[in-house]
Design brief:
mainly alpha, transmembrane helix, signal, endopeptidase activity
């Protein structure tokens, strides 16, 4: 199980830095790998220079604790979406199942959007229709370990770490002169859409998103239950 969980966590976390590289190239995010000034400004304003290692260690620890503490929440979400909805046999199969789970994901986060939790400073009217793009695209990436392993546990672990570490990454690596804007950089930004969409296309074209085995397993389980 550990061998299945590690890629599930590693790949989504690697997509985060990749999207920040794209954001930097597009001029909507700026790296500061010397002083980590955005991190200082956001979490511990100080005039010092150089990497604040104590602050980094503290944020890494709090991120890990936050991911672990949030696991019960994602055990409530993912068994329903990836465990129940994804294996449902419905034409045209995987695309509809993945889109359906993504739509459910978006609806789940609507109250947070209305309260300004995902796009701070952005009115809820444009934020609400924007969110489905950022929720549908990651679903295939999370579905990949679910399909490969037949278990929801890797998905739960990946979701927990992405929701905690992924949101903080732009601030960890950013420059205070251009504060991270979630519309452009980070898990909900358009640069993340492009990177995640490209990786999703790779998964689809390589046949890694076929749900046939999950559907067959679900049907076999239902047959055993009736028997």
């Amino acid at each position: 199980m550990l061998g299945r969980c590690l890629p599930a966590v590693a790949v989504p976390l690697l997509l985060g830095p990749a999207s920040l590289v794209l954001a930097d190239l597009a001029g909507v995010h700026r790296f500061d790998l010397t002083d980590l000034s955005a991190l200082r400004t956001r979490f511990a304003p100080a005039p010092d220079s150089g990497a604040p290692w104590a602050l980094i260690a503290g944020r890494a620890g709090s991120t890990a604790v936050g991911a672990v503490v949030s696991l019960p929440l994602f055990f409530g979400e993912e068994p329903g979406r990836q465990g129940h909805l994804l294996p449902r046999p419905a034409p045209p199969g995987a695309p509809l199942a993945l889109a359906g789970t993504g739509a459910a994901f978006a609806l789940w986060h609507t109250p947070i959007l209305v309260l300004g939790g995902r796009y701070p400073g952005v009115h809820w009217a444009p934020a609400v229709p924007t969110m489905p793009v950022g929720t549908v695209l990651p679903v295939p990436v999370l579905a990949w370990p679910r399909i490969a392993s037949g278990s929801v546990y890797p998905v739960v672990l990946a979701h927990a770490f992405v929701s905690t570490a992924g949101v903080r990454l732009p601030w960890l690596l950013g420059d205070a002169s251009l504060p991270p804007d979630p519309v452009h950089a980070g898990p909900t930004g358009w640069t993340s859409w492009l990177v995640t969409g490209a990786f999703t296309a790779f998964l689809a074209l390589s046949g890694r998103l076929r749900t046939d085995a999950l559907i067959a397993e679900e049907a076999a389980g239902a047959a055993r239950g009736r028997g």
